[in-house]
Amino acid sequence: MDRLEDLRLFTLVAEGRSFTRAAEKLGLSKSAASRRIGELEARLGARLFNRTTRHISLTQVGEGFYARVTQALDALEEAERSVVSQHAAPRGVLKLAAPMSFGIVHLSGAIADFMALYPEVTVDMDLSDRFVDLVEEGYDLAVRIGRLKDSSLVARRLCPVRAVICASPDYLARHGTPQTPADIADHDCLIYTNVQTPDQWSFRTAPGAEAIQNIKLRGRLRANNGDALREAALHGQGLVLLPTFIVGDALAAGRLVPVLDPWLPGPAAAHAVYPANRHLSPKVRAFVDFLSGRFGPVPYWDAALSVIKGG
C-alpha cells in the first residue's frame, strides 16, 4: 500500500472513528490498518489520533492534517474526473431552457443535428420567454439572449445578437422613412412587452457615438412575442425593433426594410449558461461546443445582410 492509500485510510478512520470500519472498506484486517496508521504517524513525527479502548478521535494536529488531506484527495479526484469527462462519450438526458422564437427557428434544427452526432443523448427542451432558475428547476443549461445579469452561473458566448428597426416597403411608402430617432414620434411602433422598458427604444445620440438616448414610443399593437410582431410589420402595421434571428429572412428578401441602423447601439449576445459545478458533464460540454461552432461570430442569419456592419 503506497502513501496515497495510507492517506485514504487515514481519512476513513477519522470520519468513521473506527479502525474496524475503515479496514473493512479497504479490505484490510484491523491490525493491518492500525499498523499502517502507526507507520504514518511515525513518518510524520506526530500523533494523529487519541486512542482509548472504547474511543478514537483526532488530535489537534490530526484535525489540521485531515483538513489538508481531504482537500488534496478531492482535488486529485476532480482532476481524474476532468480527464475522464473529456474523453467520455456524451450520454443521458440534456435538460435545456431557451427563448421561444430562437428555440423554434434556430435551436430545433441544431438539436436535431446534435442528436444525430450523439445518439446516446436525449434532449428535453423547454421553450419559454420566462426567466428559468436552472438550479431550482433542475436544468443542465439555458440559452439566454441579451445582456446577462450578474449571477453564479457560468456563461459562454455563442454569437452576437443584432437588433434592427424595420418596416414593410408599403408602410414606409405611406408614412415615410425616419431619418433620425426623433422621427419615431411620427410613426406607429409595434411594441414588444417582454422587456423592462417596453415603451422606449434606445439610440445613439449620433451615429457612431457611445452615448445613448431613449425615445418614447407610441403604437396601437403590443405583444410579448417577436414572431407576432414580425407578422404585423410584414402586413404594414408599423415599425418594429427585433433581432435579426427573427427578421433576417424577411430583410434578405426585401419584405422588410431596415431604418436608422447607424443610430442603433452595438449588438448584444446569445450565451449558453449553466451552473458553476466543478465537474462539467460530457453532454453539456459537447452541446455548448456544438452551438458555439454552429452559430459563431457571424451567425448564418446575418451572413446575407449587407445592412449589418461590424460589431
UniProtKB/TrEMBL annotation:
One of its GO terms (biological process) is DNA-templated transcription. It holds the Pfam family LysR_substrate. One of its GO terms (molecular function) is sequence-specific DNA binding. Keywords: DNA-binding, Transcription, Transcription regulation. SUPFAM superfamilies: Periplasmic binding protein-like II, Winged helix' DNA-binding domain. Residues 1-59 form the HTH lysR-type domain. Belongs to the LysR transcriptional regulatory family. This is LysR family transcriptional regulator. The lineage of its organism: Bacteria, Pseudomonadati, Pseudomonadota, Alphaproteobacteria, Rhodospirillales.
